[in-house]
Amino acid sequence: MNELVKRSVYGFIFIVIVLFGTTYSQTSFFLLYFIFGCISIYEMWNILEKKTILPLIFVSLPFLLINSLIDNKSESEFDPSLVLYVLILTWTFDSFAYLIGSRYGKNKILPKISPKKSWEGFVGGYIFTLIISFILMNYKTIFFQEYIIIAFILPITATIGDLIASYYKRKSNIKDYGKIIPGHGGIVDRLDAILITIPVVAIINMIG
């Protein structure tokens, strides 16, 4: 199978699984992110030559905090809207940063850690993230201050999460954290952009 086709097919399947698990029920939500958290801890532990606590906190904390972003008082009140908002904006930023960076990227952000990430891609992804956030907020009529703040900071936190995950990979001299998702690597490879975003959003949500 062509690499691009394989990446697209399995990427689509992964997104369907995430959306289904996130929205179907409170139980499916907890189960999905518990599994993601366990796999992420295993993947990080598996690549570390020196077993230290900080990388494990980096990959586990988001999955411990993500439950605070939903109303989980009862099944009838289950509302994952904020998590969906974060996921959609993250996928938007990642996709357009990649597309624009691949086409126009000349100025690299941290080439020794992540050779493909460019400032052009970052700016392009940032702009499209703000556009999609505006559309979502209009569609759902949710002009809450916290949603606006999240839209502006998410491209930054997504990039930081990605760079930290890339740093640990380069330090361990590996290409991917795992092979669970063909064409993408491991769960950490696929979710690295939310690993800093979720803790930051949890703080914003708590303050708001």
Task: Summarize the SSE layout with pairings.
Layout: H1 3-23, H2 26-47, H3 53-65, H4 81-104, H5 119-140, H6 145-172, H7 187-191, H8 197-207
Helix pairs in contact: 1-2, 2-3, 3-8, 4-5, 4-6, 5-6, 6-8
Q: Can you describe what's shown?
A:
This protein starts with a helix and ends with a helix. The protein is built from 8 helices and no strands. The model has no long low-confidence stretch (mean pLDDT 88). It has 208 residues and is mainly alpha-helical. The radius of gyration is 17 Å and the shape is globular. It has one domain.
Describe the structure concisely for a colleague.
With 208 residues, the chain is mostly helical. 70% of the residues lie in helices and 0% in strands. It has one domain (3-207).
The number of helical runs is 8
Order of helices and strands: HHHHHHHH
The shape is: globular
Runs in which pLDDT lies below 50 for 5 or more consecutive residues are none
* Number of DSSP-assigned strands: 0
**Strand content range:** under 5%
Largest sheet: none
Mean pLDDT: 88
As a percent range, the share of helical residues equals over 70%
Structure class: mainly alpha
In total, how many domains does the architecture comprise?
1
